[in-house]
Write a structure and sequence with these properties.
25% strand, binds pyridoxal-5'-phosphate, D-amino Acid Aminotransferase, Chain A, domain 1, 2 domains, single chain, D-amino Acid Aminotransferase, Chain A, domain 2, seven-stranded antiparallel β-sheet, 16 strands, alpha+beta
Amino acid sequence: MAKDQNSPLLSPDQALARLKALPRPWAGDYLAMYSNWLGGIVTEPWLMSVPIDDHLVHRGDGVFEATKCLGGRIYLFERHLDRLEGSAASTHLELPVTRRELGALAAAVVRAGGQRECMLRIFLSRGPGGFSTNPFECPAPGLYLVASRIHPPAEESYERGVNLGVSLVPAKSGFFAGVKSCNYLPNVLLKREAITRGWDFAVCLDPDGYLAEGSTENMGLVDQAGNLLLPPPDHILEGTTAKRAMELAQTLVERGQLAGVARRHLKVEELQSAAEVMLFGTTLDVLPVSRIDGKPVAGGQVGPVAKELRRLIQQDIAHNPAMSMAVWG
Ligand SMILES: Cc1ncc(COP(=O)(O)O)c(C=O)c1O
């Protein structure tokens, strides 16, 4: 395509041609997208876009969910929708479709992507309409669903355990931590710190200095008395994975492998004295931590509780249809 040397003004045809030709090295991961703005599903990454006047883009005014499809079923789908509805209610957003229609759209997007194993993200936005913070500028909410390839941690991370750092990036607190909004700046800074400091993951502290959560994962530990402990929900996002893991952990309590399961404030020092430390999240299930800022915890070994909880979650994914939604029959 010939470039107009005198003016950056592009004709619609030129703009479209450029959009199509732009290099997108990451786009091989993008499988399919539904947009209520377009009114349908596209599978070409260059068409997967959101209008700039959607308040999601310029104000972060939207909420979302990240779910995973394994073996053609979206795990914990109903729970993700419960959380999405909670986030929407907290931010005065209304889904433009029924829950049943959203399920059908999710299945259609995953099917259009053609992969039985993938991530499916749902974004509910304030919608297009002006550039102010005023949510009443936007006549209708936006709904975008995107299927993309899934990249779980390497198996070696589960065998060796990962290196966790404690960050001083200010965490979201209270109300803002509990809403899965598209305001992820603290989470972004947390992730950035982990990468730049050579940690695999970072956790932040709540306003009282207690352990809170990771960039996109919850954390927990097993104390020396054999209790699985997770922070209370006041300053974290309630994870669907952590919640399911706590339910499944009751099996370990019954077998005597755990003394109990509880929520309470956790001090940073408790990481060093813990029998096990672990992370929970949709992409990683249950991931053991064997080092804190490079120093071994729990003898630098992967403990039995994290291993067993991961196995129970994987079993739940593969053999408990009540906990997932079928995308393919
Ligand atoms: C801030 C935060 N905490 C925790 C989690 C873990 O939640 P889930 O297990 O539902 O993936 C996420 C997930 O994206 C998150 O963004």
